[in-house]
Amino acid sequence: MSTQIAILPAGVWGTALAVPAAAGGGAVRLWRRTPGWSWGWDRGHPALPGLRLPDNVAACERPEEAVAGADLVILSPAGAGLRAVCRLVRPHLRPDAIVVTVTKSIEPETHLLVHQVVGEELPAHRERIVALSGPNFAHEVAAGLPTGAVAACPDLALADRVQEVLMTDRFRIYTNPDRTGVELAGALKNVIALGVGISDGLNLGDNARAALITRGLVEMARLGRAMGANPLTFAGLAGMGDLVLSCTGDSSRNRRAGLAIGRGQSIAAFLAETGLTVEGVVTTRAAWQLARRCEVRMPITEAIYQVLYEDLPPLAAMERLMARPRAHELEEVAEAKLDPPESR
Description:
Elements: E1 4-8, H1 12-23, E2 27-31, H2 39-42, E3 57-60, H3 63-67, E4 72-75, H4 82-89, E5 98-101, H5 114-121, E6 129-133, H6 138-142, E7 147-152, H7 156-166, E8 171-176, H8 179-201, H9 206-226, H10 237-248, H11 253-262, H12 267-274, H13 279-294, H14 299-309, H15 314-322, H16 331-338
Parallel strand pairs: 1-2, 1-4, 2-3, 4-5, 5-6, 7-8
Antiparallel strand pairs: 6-7
Helix pairs in contact: 4-5, 8-9, 8-10, 8-11, 8-13, 8-14, 9-10, 13-14, 14-15
């Protein structure tokens, strides 16, 4: 029997994911939250010009129509809309459905990761949530360009099933049991991409960009370890892979927002002018608060927070980072100095 897949909502990323989802021949149903798109002539998305979705992809006007009988339910809203979408689908999910999340955020009020938010809203499916993440620009996935991703769940059998259903010869998926690390990496890379964009907007050079990416990755892994994640996850597709893409790719919304800030525009003006959802803005505050709660050093994240929320001039933020006290690159060295062998 072919797999039935629901994707909600049919935003840019949700629509793009319909391409690999449909490749296996199963039925794919997209819930288009905004009625009136002319699916009859292009069967795609206004932000994905040239895309024609396969014939086994159907548009649905109601979320319950999309979800009914689905084996896999892919939730693809922005972070702010995650709870609302969960509540729409909750009464209609099959008990054995696998819930796949592709949202990259930390809930600002609660500091919950995506699977924790979904688990609260869909308690019957709390153990059946798989995070799908990686260095994936929607327009490239929609165009069938080679892409890597990771499906993460403590129950690897569920991650394997998602891999089996969604992987194609152009959309390669790996599995990982570290769902916390994968989700945290996907959210935190947006913060560092904002910082890299600011640096590039200030014309601080390629060396500064490379240093911010590298030390930003250290911060991501540092917080991840404090929250129980595997530090090695941050060296993988959801960590280093997505970080490099978001910090260097011209299609990165967070990088574009950072560039605007570095060139003198306020984040409020950028958001108003573009109408874009830039997840890194709210994630910066959540990450900074999490770091304080976990007593984790994240100087780059703190500097970006000060720029966004305390009106620190971007150049002053970069100068503060460069003026920090001398430090070891490897944390084990610093820990050994503070706690010599004879005292351990």
